[in-house]
Amino acid sequence: MPTSRKVIMQRQIINTLGVQADIDLDSEIVRRVNFMVDYLHHTRAGGLVLGISGGVDSTVAGRLAQMAVEQYRRVNPDWTGKFYAMRLPYHIQGDADDAVAAIEFIKPDVDIEMQIGSATDALAMSLKDATGEEPSDYNLGNVKARMRMIAQYALAGEHGALVVGTDQAAESITGFYTKFGDGAADIMPLAGLTKTQVRNIGDRLGADSRLVHKIPTADLLTNKPGQTDEAELGISYDDIDAYLSGDAINDDAREKLETIYHRSEHKRRLPVRPSDDWWY
Ligand SMILES: Nc1ncnc2c1ncn2[C@@H]1O[C@H](COP(=O)(O)OP(=O)(O)OC[C@H]2O[C@@H]([n+]3cccc(C(=O)O)c3)[C@H](O)[C@@H]2O)[C@@H](O)[C@H]1O
Ligand SMILES: Nc1ncnc2c1ncn2[C@@H]1O[C@H](COP(=O)(O)OP(=O)(O)OP(=O)(O)O)[C@@H](O)[C@H]1O
Ligand SMILES: [Mg+2]
């Protein structure tokens, strides 16, 4: 591809995802907290709900969510809404102590631990009984992510609360999330941030550096616990962030990233309907 076309494509993707290479951390924290406060006010919602894994994204989004409910409560003392943090292990979670450390940092109004092991396994068993087919480890991983979505929406429904999503630009560009699983949410406070910016905000907020600089994992596979995102994606977060920041990366990585971006376009759109034609 000629250099000018490469640059135009990169710029279009950066603009679509709303990435800003240079951010002021303090004003970015204020802007994102105010955004949640403003939306709580507008919707009169009964609080916020978020799954806390022990990874950096939910640590940072969780702390921002708790800051938002505290700020909203200060100006609306009669408001009874809360931030509900949910630890949702599938049986035994290898890094469960990180999820506890994240909760200690976030200091949520409500800390809930709920097993998704039995519900997930029951779904897989029912599918097998009905069809004779057992979901692969890969597909079961997506069922785990969707079971967490069901748990969060069940709790949100009880309290009229909104489900927070942790999608940021490095995940959005790759579609590296489960469609209607962790990709499903009502409010996305980290949207448009690179992974590095999420970490920088985590550092600025004073989160434990063990959590902030932890190697990212979706941790969805039973047969490969803690598999790193980078191993599965075949591309590094450094390359993804450099691309999102408008820097040049090597041609192989760029081509791979743009292929993944185009292939995952359906995840960034509403379900296709007869009046759509964006995929041509
Ligand atoms: N072109 C198209 N137009 C419209 N819909 C399309 C489609 N292609 C597939 N689909 C639909 O999308 C489904 C596939 O999408 P999906 O179910 O998401 O499945 P898929 O993208 O295959 O898997 C999710 C990926 O995200 C990763 N992940 C998941 C969860 C969390 C994290 C994390 O970082 O924490 C990472 C996971 O490791 C895996 O690599 C298909 O089954 C089909 O229903
Ligand atoms: N075991 C879990 N308990 C509760 N929520 C979870 C769990 N695993 C994943 N989630 C939810 O799914 C989201 C997506 O997972 P993802 O791995 O992308 O984020 P993370 O774990 O917060 O950070 P990182 O990407 O750096 O690992 C999490 O932010 C969290 O909200
Ligand atoms: Mg994770």
TrEMBL record:
Entry keywords, A to Z: ATP-binding, Ligase, Magnesium, Metal-binding, NAD, Nucleotide-binding
UniProt family annotation: Belongs to the NAD synthetase family.
GO biological process: NAD+ biosynthetic process
Name used for this protein in its record: NH(3)-dependent NAD(+) synthetase
Pfam families to which the protein is assigned, alphabetical: NAD_synthase (PF02540)
HAMAP family: NadE_ammonia_dep
InterPro entries the UniProt entry points to: NAD/GMP_synthase (IPR022310), NAD_synthase (IPR003694), NH(3)-dep_NAD(+)_synth (IPR022926), Rossmann-like_a/b/a_fold (IPR014729)
Subunit field text: Homodimer.
Binding annotation for Mg(2+): D57, E171
Catalytic reaction list: deamido-NAD(+) + NH4(+) + ATP = AMP + diphosphate + NAD(+) + H(+)
Cellular component GO terms held in the UniProt record: cytoplasm
Residue span(s) of domain NAD/GMP synthase: 29-271
GO MF annotations, alphabetized: ATP binding; glutaminase activity; metal ion binding; NAD+ synthase (glutamine-hydrolyzing) activity; NAD+ synthase activity
Organism whose genome encodes this protein: Enteractinococcus helveticum
Domain of life per record: Bacteria
Pathway info: Cofactor biosynthesis; NAD(+) biosynthesis; NAD(+) from deamido-NAD(+) (ammonia route): step 1/1
Residues given in the record as ATP binding sites: G51, I52, S53, G54, G55, V56, D57, S58, T166, K195, T217
This enzyme's EC code(s): 6.3.1.5
Residues the record lists as binding deamido-NAD(+): R146, K179, D186, H266, K267
